[in-house]
Specification:
Layout: H1 11-31, H2 33-53, E1 61-67, H3 72-83, E2 87-92, H4 95-103, E3 109-113, H5 117-122, E4 129-132, H6 137-157, H7 183-213, H8 215-218, H9 226-255, H10 264-289, H11 292-309, H12 322-328, H13 332-346, H14 350-377
Parallel strand pairs: 1-2, 1-3
Antiparallel strand pairs: 3-4
């Protein structure tokens, strides 16, 4: 099949063709239930699932406080655990009871106040034993830190001079996430997944479906250019992605209370850049494989899973091996996550926003150019 001869009617004809293609795609998108489900319903489900169901905070930890010393001072320390919002404490009299509960996984930690606790307190050498269930190493470290904080808080407020802190007091403050809520950085990261689904996955499936049905090839015998076809495909899903972004931002602000300290204009511009990158990936994949099933699998492997695992959305990239960190620099989601977390929580920090935005802009230009080139080859 050969392509139609180049059209020389000028810019008005190109605009008419582009408008017709865009209108056709919009009508097709509205009529297609799967597009609406993936573009609107799925982002809403992800917002609710990740916002309410996923949390890295540790609250109401079941803990046993073994009170082998019945003195008032020991009971005062035990009450610190009972009144804490981070612990669900139960008082026990023996370590054997606590050990049995730990083995049955009914508690996650044991705080032991030995029989000589009061005596050691008098001589200035108090000791509190904290035993933590270590199957989940990250949770164990958090619980251990909470327990140490409870003991330190008790020591700072007790009126006994032998357990008071020294003359140097530490005043700590958590910047950018004063509430210490994991959803403050999880919800902005969720926007990455939504933009990836709408931009890459949906575009790859829709274009591949047209390849399978033969409707895409029918356009090649018309005066429509390859670039106009791709632009007509891009505009509707770009608008759908912006609608998904608006849903996410509204949910972040009014449903989960995540602060937005940066400019909404910068947020929209950064999201538009990443959406163009995702659209370019989807168009490139569908142009290369022309099969819905293969396109969906490749898109899942190269966009969604890396955005979930290697973008800094769930896991700190600095704790990963050097080889994995090097691979993450090739992923556009890494830069978008940095932009979102900065704009939401820190504000308009140019030193972070400008470099990451420039990388996304370069990736968008490269991917869209490759997608246009791949489509042009099929016209020959």
């Amino acid at each position: 099949m050969t392509a139609a001869p180049p059209d020389r009617a000028g810019a008005p004809a190109k605009l008419r063709r582009l408008g017709a293609l865009t209108a056709k795609e919009l009508r097709q998108m509205v009529r297609d239930p799967s597009s609406i489900a993936m573009g609107i319903v799925l982002p809403v489900l992800l917002i609710l699932l990740f916002g309410y169901g996923l949390s890295l905070d540790v609250r109401e930890v079941p803990v046993a406080v073994v009170l082998e010393d019945p003195s008032p001072t020991a009971r005062e320390l035990a009450a610190r655990f009972q009144l804490s919002e981070y612990f669900d404490a139960r008082l026990l009299a023996s370590m054997r009871q606590a050990r049995d509960l730990m083995q049955r996984r009914e508690i996650d930690a044991i705080v032991r106040l030995r029989p000589d606790f009061s005596r050691r307190l008098v001589i200035g050498d108090p000791a509190v034993q904290v035993l933590v269930h270590g199957i989940d190493a990250n949770r164990a470290r958090i619980i251990q830190g909470y327990a140490q904080g409870a003991v330190a808080g008790w020591a700072a407020t007790t009126e006994r001079p032998e357990v008071r802190a020294g003359p140097v007091a530490v005043q700590s403050r958590l910047w950018f996430n004063e509430a210490h809520e994991s959803r403050y950085f999880l919800v902005p990261g969720l926007i990455v997944l939504v933009m990836t689904l709408i931009g890459a996955m949906l575009t790859a499936l829709v274009v591949a479906r047209e390849w399978e049905r033969g409707t895409f090839e029918a356009l090649f015998v018309t005066p429509v250019r390859a670039g106009e076809i791709l632009l007509g495909k891009t505009v509707p899903y770009f608008l759908l992605g912006i609608a998904g972004l608006a849903l996410c931002v509204l949910a972040a602000r009014f449903l989960f209370g995540v602060p937005l300290r940066g400019s909404i204009g910068l947020l929209a511009a950064a999201s538009a850049l990443y959406l163009l990158v995702a659209l370019g990936i989807g168009l490139l994949i569908s142009s290369a494989v022309k099969s819905q099933f293969v396109a969906s699998q490749i898109t899942l492997l190269v966009t969604f899973l890396p955005a979930l695992m290697l973008s800094g959305f769930l896991f700190d990239l600095r704790s990963m091996p050097a080889a994995v960190r090097a691979i993450s620099y090739l992923l556009p989601a890494r830069y978008y996550v940095a932009l979102l977390q900065t704009i939401f929580l820190a504000g308009d920090v140019r030193e972070v926003i400008v470099p990451n935005a420039l990388v996304l802009a370069g990736m968008a230009l490269l991917l869209l150019a490759l997608a246009r080139r791949a489509t042009r080859k099929t016209l020959a």
